[in-house]
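Data deposition worksheet. Section B asks for the primary sequence of the deposited chain exactly as it was used as input, without tags or linkers unless they were present during the calculation. Section C holds the resulting structure in token form. Section D is free text for depositor observations; keep each observation to a single sentence. Incomplete worksheets are returned to the depositor.
Section A, Depositor: J.P.
Section B:
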Amino acid sequence: MNINQEQLSIFKAVMESGSFSAAARKLGKVPSAVSMSIANLEIDLDLKLFERVGREPMPTPQAHVLYEKTEQLLIEMNQWKQQALALANGLETSLNIVVVTELLHTDWTEYISLLAEHFPTLQINIFSAPQEDALKMLINQTAQLALMFEREILESREQFVEVKREALVPVAAQHFPLAQKVVVTFEDILQSRQIVVASRDKSIKPELLYSKNYWRTDNHHLACSMILQGLGWGVLPVQIFEENSQYKKNLKILNLADFTPKFEYYVDLVWSRESHLGQAARFLINHIRNQRIHTK
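Section C:
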């Protein structure tokens, strides 16, 4: 059986227009070409599709059954061709992006929507991980791009473009001892248990760790839950207070005496110099670079 896209398109046109001649006009072909294509399709299928009696061909019950499947099959064939063309032009087979857990509350999905709009056939996989693990995923190439906080010391294999700035603040549940203080000293936070988002690899020290006594989790939502429960204080993005009324009501931003209780960080889109980036990854990098140029 050797059925091609043109045969299916002609079959669909005949079914919808009601005659070989009308289908030929619609497709810009001569009627004999349409008639021959249908005849060849019937031979390939070993199936009669039209009763040729009277002025116009009459679809058989089998033709009606196949017609129901034809449009979806043509759509899938077109998608297959578009995917093959995109791959030939350098589109990656899939794009893995890791988002640092503290950034899950930011507007990172706008970039995914942009990729979906320009590369509709691309498979995109989104992961969430603590900062240290996100960097490891880039280095071992299990992710091609990472949305993460700026780092004081860059890995030699890293390359990045700044995306935006985000603020984090030290918080505690309203009933937590630190929250009862009008002013919190650095010694206070050193002695109070901190809930910190960190790598599962305990040999890696978290960047935002201040307390001598701390619990760690690799999940930002778990950290929020533990802080709300009064199990410790932690550092959370300011934006979550705007999005979650429960956090706004039950958490207090600590008034630190010894330094400004607001950590301003640039958020970077990061990739490895050793990775061979595909068309979609390069598109997103260039899009963010152009955004920065036009907002300066």
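Section D:
The mean pLDDT is 86.
The domain at 166-265 is CATH 3.40.190.290 (D-Maltodextrin-Binding Protein; domain 2).
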